[in-house]
Amino acid sequence: MTESQSGLLQTAFVLVYMIMAPVFGYLGDRFSRKYLMAVGIFFWCLATLVGSFMPNYLLFLLFRCFVGVGEASYSTIAPTIISDLFVKDLRSKMLAVFYFAIPVGSGLGYIIGAEVTNLLSDSHGSEAWRWGLRVTPVMGFLALFLILCCLEEPPRGESEGGQHLQSTSFLEDLGYLFTNKSFILSTLAFTCVTFVAGALAWWGPFFTELGVRIQDHPNAKENDVAFVFGAIAMTAGLIGVPLGSFTGQKLRIKFPFADPLVCGVGLLISVPLIIGAMVLAEFNTVVSYVVVFFGQVFLNLNWAVVSDIVLYIVIPTRRSSAEAFQILFSHALGDAGSPYLIGVVAESLQPYITPRNTTTNTTMEPPSTTTLDYFNSTEATITTTAAPEVDDYVKFKALQYSMFLCAVINILGAIFFFLNSCFIRKDKEKCDQIIADNSEPKSQKTDSNGQLVASVSVIQSTTLVVDESQKC
Fold it and tell me: Which residue ranges form the domains of the chain, and what is each CATH number?
């Protein structure tokens, strides 16, 4: 199987994920978020488990798409529940905890998948990879149990005194979001982030393994490289996500426009580090690991901060839709296509690169070797024509040149974040004013952590919601 066919597995998942996000966003602004998340997680667990039994590539690709349906549910809705439980700096802290899941989950995926495959490779041979997929639904069912038994869903906007805001029509929601400059710019910037993150997550281990092989280590195993790469991604997330959130909290006390600046500076710093790691992978794997670690730390600064931005520039009754449309556009133009695009560009460059020598191993498979071997076996219902053998050095250089595109996209993302800083203060003030106009007449008081202390009740007319939102 070619690099582009391998990248299609990730692209198909993200395409379905982004298409379903607006559906769950619309439902999340109008129906029980608790039960929507529960249904989505159950579907995710079921699709992952059943997909591990599929006998050929096309069926596996289909269930990979189904996984995207389940993931769209909780990734869209969960941040809005957090926003209704906490406000101010406490909300930022809780979002940082929540967004640990992205880099940490990605890292654990590499580690668990690699270790399960290694442990069962002797007894299950080329089928060992399937058991890695059968481990994750167990954790998913645990999360489902906790949501159903422990989660008490708060009223929308309760923590900010905006619980009397009423849902409006879908078209009115769209009009509000697409006239919100900070929302548009943060979404464009986040699209660049997802492009780079998706490309690195999919091709990083394979690229690193190629680098190890051309350093006269032809027996390097992808699972070993994936384990290290996963540990790096997880550790970088543990540091980068809270670092970005903490930095934003401290700076916005004096500079209300600081959040997008933190994200933009983080992207700019990551550019030379990512380029350096890709260059060093050809000569020294350990140094490359160190450099890519710091690159990922700065890339991870923005995850919690971007979500926080969306939540404080959008009124409570439109936050699920805002999260959903940000997911839609950031993934549609970001990581939905970046793995496939990087693979296609790498393949197109291969004929123009001269092999360094003929001593390197030329039989290495693309990512998920055991999976792809099985999919291309004569037992599979659907088979593909084997790609011609390509020298490892040629594969490495082609993929290296292709992945330099990530640096360009990072710079573009930083520009969007810097532009966002010009509008964010005004957009936040508009949002706060709409909430205040539709809350109780006496302001609800909060303690220094942003927790609700007291309130009084007299409901004002909610007709101001539409009128004021149109001004935004």
Answer: 3-155+172-422 (1.20.1250.20)
